[in-house]
Design a protein that fits this description.
Blueprint lengths: L1 H17 L5 E8 L14 E3 L1 H6 L6 E3 L21 E8 L2 E8 L4 E3 L10
Antiparallel strand pairs: 1-2, 1-4, 3-6, 4-5
């Protein structure tokens, strides 16, 4: 629990530093994500990882170079052992929403223009 509290303090400092136009993680889920549009992920096989990801933001960027399982990242764990996992991130940068989904062992680099959610 102490590690989570320290991480939360780090995130608060990060959010102050990033400001309104910086990189802000709006939603982040890790685990067995929904595969069909409109389908919701099983809450027992998916975890919220907003805090651990926001804590990794430096200079308006989030880069996770490790090609190992993201369950090894601080603040993460494996919510569905033996099953395929993905990381979904919805974020805002420069006031614009973006989203991306990464395979468990894929390198994460945000922000990227290709992640931008087009206004409808």
């Amino acid at each position: 629990m102490a590690a989570r509290e320290l991480m939360t303090e780090t995130v608060e400092r990060c959010l102050q530093k990033e400001g309104e136009m910086g990189l802000i993680i709006v939603k982040a889920q890790y685990g067995k994500l929904a595969t069909e549009p409109g389908q919701r992920p099983d809450p027992e096989k998916c975890i919220d990882v907003i805090v651990p990801l926001q804590a990794l933001v430096k200079d308006h960027k989030l880069v996770v170079l490790s090609e190992g399982s993201k369950s090894n990242l601080q603040g993460f764990y494996d919510p569905c052992i033996g099953e395929e996992k993905n990381l979904y991130i919805r974020y805002r940068t420069n006031g614009v929403l973006h989203e991306a989904t990464y395979a468990d062992t894929e390198v994460v680099k945000i922000p990227m223009r290709g992640h931008r959610i087009e206004a409808k």
